[in-house]
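User: Sequence for Carbon-nitrogen family hydrolase below. Tokens please.
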Amino acid sequence: MRASLIQLAVSDAEPPAERRARAASLVRAQTGADLVVLPELWPLGGFAYDLWSDGAETLDGPTSDAMAAAARAAGVWLHAGSIVERDPDGPIYNTSLLFAPDGELVHTYRKIHRFGFDSGEAVVMGAGQEIVTAATDFGTLGLATCYDLRFPELFRALLDAGAQLLVVPAAWPERRREHWTLLARARAVEEQAYVLACNTAGTHGGVEQAGHSIVVDPWGRVLAEAGSGEQVLTVEFDPAEVAKARAEFPVLRDRLLGIPAPVQR
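Assistant: Structure tokens for Carbon-nitrogen family hydrolase:
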């Protein structure tokens, strides 16, 4: 399969509507890919807290409309990163959107682990409650977002739900870039799964972004890694390598704590 990670530059100077149109254009250009991934909170910015309340949108808002049309035009599965979701009956959420090649919004994931400790996302956003996987033509996706990478128990739950490819959009800062690549490789090795981690570039909310989107195989090998600027990172790989790795090195069979290893499909 072919995956394209769009490491979009996010800045305070670019209006959200212009960035939305630019992102849609980049998605439409990925015809021939099987899966396209955008970063976390790219319409407003992962650290642009002051924009979130006024800029929040519903699941049928302008970003969803633009991404549905782009996925349909390119004929790709599109993980459109995440938006600030306005729930009419609750708080705002950091919500990922997954579109099928026909443009249908087939899955959403509300970020479970909110970053910021006693400020920012941790205070103003609600926490998701559901583990989300998605069956596709090329394998089962497990959905996580940015700070979630630091919590291996989430990825074990995704593994037990059948995930073979772990998709992680992010707005990860440059000052902790080494953690970003280390944790992406660690989650791949732990779950014997592919990790496709798509970060933002640029600076927004006064925070420089790390870039360095990365694709890691089930053995922990880095198949492709972006630089620090805006870039489309495209890589081809064989999803069957997941079952092969799990059979050749059956470490998951030896789990003694928690839920037993999933039955191989």
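The chain is about 25% helix and 25% strand.
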